[in-house]
Amino acid sequence: MPLKLSAGKYRFVLVALLSAIPAFAADLVQVYREALAYDAQYATARATAAAGREKQPQALAGLLPNIGASGNTFGNDTRYAVTSNDITGFSVKKNYQNRYNSNSYGVNLTQPLFRWQNFVQYDQSRLLVMQTEANFAQAGQDLILRVAQAYFDVLFAIENLRAVQANKTAIAQQLAQARKNFEVGTATITDTYESQSRFDLATAQEIAAENDLEVKRYALRVLVGKDPGELHRLKPQAMMEPPQPASMDPWVEAAERDNFVVQAQLAAAEAADKAVDINRAGHYPTVDVVANYGYNNGPGQLGAGSIDTVTGQVGLQISIPIFQGGAVNSRTREAIARRDAERAGLDSARRNSALGARQAYLGVVNGLAGVRALDAALVSSLSSLESNRLGYEVGVRINIDVLNAENQVYVTRRDLAKARFDTLLAQLKLKAAVGSLSESDLERVNTLFEAP
Question: How confident is the model over 118-134, as pLDDT tens digits?
Fold first, then answer.
């Protein structure tokens, strides 16, 4: 009998089915592009960069004219008394009241001619913008590395779970075989106990691997805002290229010069130099061109009519600071100390960048050697497993030998997967160390992956 659903139940089933489908199945580049639009940390860096770029227009304003306008209108009520002598010689006091409106407006212009701190501040603003751009570029590289790390973590967690589950399956088969052999009298109960112990341990490892995979998936989801779904897997015979140039020194030299952290710190140190000049300029005179235009409308004497007054002024205004309580000297000393701190920070950034380049370079070189070694170890482990199985069947190997050989195969497979992912990540970190990591590098790595 066909199943009939009401409209409400049909919608419920449809929503349930759709919610069970992963949000998307993507490769490494697609995941990165999703993170580019969603990641909160990168969004913070983007907004911070937009704010930092405004330093230059703000500094430019100190070199441009300032124009202001003002105006007012008042209702006035004036009362006054006039005392005079009449013809008889007596003094007479007369009271007067005058009510009128007065209006005025004015426009003033100030054009700095010589304000040394404004000129230096404009130069400093360009350095601050350079620092902002370098920090934003570094944030972009960090996003690529975070996405790659999270992506590889999920894939390794999958490989680890598969290895644990395969090991558990093999142990279960060995446990069943050991029980059967014990029942027919061709093996001792010790084989059964050993297999059972290994099976229980594999069950615990499977639970831990499943939990780890769930955590790694959620970490990737935090970056992209979606269920990552089925990720593309590394090709079994993926070939990874050694670093070019194949020498550590050029990479270290490039890192000390081109790393974005170094560039940001260099701009900060140079901006700190400008800050010293800005504060010293507190002792210098300033010269401005000043122009004023004003209009005023008010009453004449004793309220007789009104008078319109128009004034205009153009001239130079010079201001010479003499003594400000020692504030200028104090701020200058503070700026010098901050400059020294920024220079020390630049040395630290260069050293850390060189260290990062060395670590990444060695990570790639040693990683490639490790992958080759583990490839050979996997072949040897498979041969050993086959030999132990054969020996167990003919009675020259015991059950524990087969279990150990099987476990070695799965451990080698897991270690090989980790070595491949670590080497790929080291390649990306090496590019980041010299400030050249970009989406194109991620696309190159992405060619080593294929759909599951």
Answer: 999 999 999 999 999 99
Give the pairing of strands 66-85 and 91-114. antiparallel
Q: What is the pLDDT of residues 402-435, one digit of tens each?
A: 878 888 888 898 899 999 999 999 999 999 999 9
* pTM value > 0.90: no
Structural domains in the chain, CATH included, are 27-64+115-284+325-450 (1.20.1600.10), 74-113+286-320 (no CATH)
- Residue 261 tokens read as 């952290």
Angle between helical axes of 248-258 and 399-433 (0-180°, round to 10)? 50
Task: Quote the CA–CA distance of 187 and 195 in Å, as a whole number.
Answer: 12
Is the distance from CB of 389 to CB of 174 less than 8 angstroms?
no
Which segments of the chain have a pLDDT < 50?
Answer: 1-23
Q: Are the C-beta atoms of residues 197 and 178 closer than 8 Å to each other?
A: no
Q: Three-class SS string for the chain? A: CCCCCCHHHHHHHHHHHHHHCCCCCCCHHHHHHHHHHHCHHHHHHHHHHHHHCCHHHHHHHHHCCEEEEEEEEEEEEEEEEEEEECCCCCEEEEEEEEEEEEEEEEEEEEEEEECHHHHHHHHHHHHHHHHHHHHHHHHHHHHHHHHHHHHHHHHHHHHHHHHHHHHHHHHHHHHHHHHHHHHHCCCCHHHHHHHHHHHHHHHHHHHHHHHHHHHHHHHHHHHHCCCCCCCCEECCCCCCCCCCCCCHHHHHHHHHHHCHHHHHHHHHHHHHHHHHHHHHHHHCCEEEEEEEEEEEEEECHHHCCEEEEEEEEEEEEEECCCCCCCHHHHHHHHHHHHHHHHHHHHHHHHHHHHHHHHHHHHHHHHHHHHHHHHHHHHHHHHHHHHHHHHHHHHCCCCHHHHHHHHHHHHHHHHHHHHHHHHHHHHHHHHHHHCCCCCHHHHHHHHCCEECC
Query: What letter represents residue 71's amino acid?
Result: G
> CA 28 to CA 148: how far, in whole Å?
7
- Longest Cα–Cα distance of the chain, Å, equals 157
Contact 102, 73 (CB under 8 A): yes
- What's the pLDDT score for residue 17? 41
Tokens coding 244:
């070019």
Distance, CA of 91 to CA of 85 (rounded, Å):
4
